[in-house]
UniProtKB/TrEMBL annotation:
One of its GO terms (biological process) is cilium movement involved in cell motility. Belongs to the tektin family. InterPro entries: Tektin-like (IPR048256), Tektins (IPR000435). It is a peripheral membrane protein. Keywords: Cell projection, Cilium, Cytoplasm, Cytoplasmic vesicle, Cytoskeleton, Flagellum, Membrane, Ubl conjugation. Microtubule inner protein (MIP) part of the dynein-decorated doublet microtubules (DMTs) in cilia and flagellar axoneme. Forms filamentous polymers in the walls of ciliary and flagellar microtubules. Required for normal sperm mobility. The gene is Tekt3. It comes from the Eukaryota. It is found in: Cytoplasm, Cytoskeleton, Cilium axoneme; Cytoplasm, Cytoskeleton, Flagellum axoneme; Cytoplasmic vesicle, Secretory vesicle, Acrosome outer membrane. This is Tektin.
Length: 488
């Protein structure tokens, strides 16, 4: 039975006779229903019209021939037509005809009523079925929309949770990026300090310009700082790259979440629509438009892939942060230990130089004292030589005067022998004294040279001590601590 969008007809009635010419055309009647809004858009093409309308309209009020009313009566026995009787009345039918006609009308009316009752019952059942199917269909659609809303809310909560975790991870990784940048910038100071220490130590003089342990430790410190800078820069590049990956994953999550929110809003609005809602309209042919681009499996897989990508990026980011933290701790500890070793080497070297300086000062004081004593002794020798020379002059003068004795007076007496012995002894003594004087003068020259060497060495030691203690250690006192290197 056709009940939706088409005219309802009783299938058990007599076939419908063709309408007479007195009835209006179907197109004319359809035109009269153009402004009527039926229950379905497709029912606008044909109005609802029962068969009884056509059957009632098919009755012809004209009189039929008597032969049609009395089919068994021959034409010769038909009562002649009297145009008008004495009483002025027409007598065309008998009372039996009238009764039969009424009975036929009653029977037809009763049959039509029974048919109408059955039709009304069928229509009632059909309408109830239509309403029930409509309610069931609409309920199924509403339930499907509710399930869809629940699915969207679940994935929205998952996306929000993952997005919050990604934002926290991005903030933590950005903080690590800043710490790495600060740590990388802070290594420039120790690097310059180590270079300046090497340049300052190049200004040492003489024997102190030596490749000692301090210089070796400084070279090692420069190599360690350069290695730490390279590792920090490499880690910083990896952090920057990971930040870009995190940013892309976050953008995908935000875009997916925005789409989910829009879809949730639309589906919630559709879920709340009812037959009594105001914003409902006809959209003819909308059911034939398929604007979908996914199915539930691909829809859920798309969001799951975004979440999995974000989780993978967060895991890689957390691992990178842990590695960066370990690298910061390792480089800070390594640089600090090398800094301590260099300082220890400087302290040891400064102690050695100070001890050498103290010894030089002691030897210099002793040398100066010896020079003073030797100079005093030379003066004594010189005075002794002068005294001996006077004594020699006296003895030689005596001998010279005694050579002028006359004749036999030139006697080799004891006085002569003693004077000669005195002259010889004095001459030998003077020769010895002159040798001692030359030796003393030579020793004095050696002491003076030694003094000069000690004084020069003392200047060198003072210069080395000033470079190591004042310049180098003064610079290294401003070396950043471990907390500053770690970037806190």
């Amino acid at each position: 039975m056709e009940l939706y969008g088409y005219p309802l007809k009783a299938k058990f009635n007599q076939p419908r006779p063709p309408p007479p010419k007195v009835l209006p055309a179907t197109s004319t009647m359809t035109a009269s229903y153009k402004n009527h809004i039926p229950c379905h858009p497709e029912s606008l093409s044909m109005p609802w019209m029962p068969n009884s309308y056509y059957r009632a309209a098919a009755l012809n009020p004209t009189l039929s021939p008597l032969t049609e009313c009395f089919p068994g009566l021959p034409p010769t026995r038909i009562i002649p037509f009297i145009s008008e009787g004495p009483g002025g009345a027409f007598r065309r039918h008998t009372l039996d005809d009238w009764n039969r006609y009424n009975l036929a009308n009653y029977k037809e009316s009763e049959t039509a009523r029974h048919s109408a009752e059955r039709l009304r019952a069928d229509l009632t059942r059909a309408i109830q079925g239509v309403h029930q199917r409509a309610r069931s269909s609409q309920g199924e659609s509403t339930r499907s929309l509710g399930e869809r809303i629940n699915d969207i809310e679940y994935w929205k909560s998952e996306l929000c949770h993952e997005l919050d975790a990604m934002i926290r991870e991005n903030n933590s990784l950005a903080d690590m990026q800043k710490r790495l940048e600060r740590a990388l910038a802070d290594t420039e100071g120790p690097f310059q300090v180590a270079h300046k220490c090497l340049l300052n130590r190049e200004k040492r003089m003489g024997i102190d310009l030596v490749n000692d342990d301090v210089e070796k430790q400084l070279v090692t410190e420069i190599a360690i700082i350069r290695s730490c800078r390279e590792r920090l820069q490499k880690c910083l590049d990896m952090v920057n790259s990971q930040l870009m990956c995190n940013k892309e994953a976050r953008q995908e999550l935000e875009k997916d979440l925005a789409d989910k929110q829009m879809g949730h809003h639309i589906d919630s609005k559709c879920h709340q629509l009812k037959d009594t809602s105001r914003d409902i309209h006809f959209f003819k042919g909308v059911e034939r438009i398929d604007a979908t681009v996914s199915v539930p499996e691909t829809w859920a897989r798309f969001t799951d892939n975004n979440i999995f990508r974000s989780q993978s990026a967060r895991a890689a980011s957390a691992k990178l942060r842990a590695g960066s933290e370990s690298l910061l701790m390792g480089t800070a500890d390594e640089m600090w230990r090398q800094f301590s070793r260099v300082n220890d080497a400087f302290t040891s070297r400064i102690t050695e130089i100070a001890n050498a300086k103290s010894k030089i000062q002691t030897h210099l004081a002793k040398t100066r004292q010896e020079i003073f004593q030797l100079e005093t002794k030379i003066q004594v020798i010189q005075k002794t030589i002068k005294d001996k020379e006077v004594q020699l002059k006296v003895a030689q003068t005596r001998l010279d005067e005694r050579t002028r004795r006359p004749n036999v007076e030139l006697c080799r007496d004891a006085a002569q022998i003693r004077l000669v012995q005195e002259v010889n002894d004095t001459t030998e003594t003077l020769r010895n004294l002159h040798q001692c004087l030359r030796a003393s003068e030579d020793m004095l020259q050696m002491l003076v040279r030694s003094k000069g060497v000690l004084e020069q060495d003392l200047v060198v030691k003072n210069n080395s001590l000033f470079i190591d203690q004042e310049r180098c250690m003064g610079l290294r006192k401003s070396y950043p601590g471990t907390v500053r290197i770690l970037g806190y």
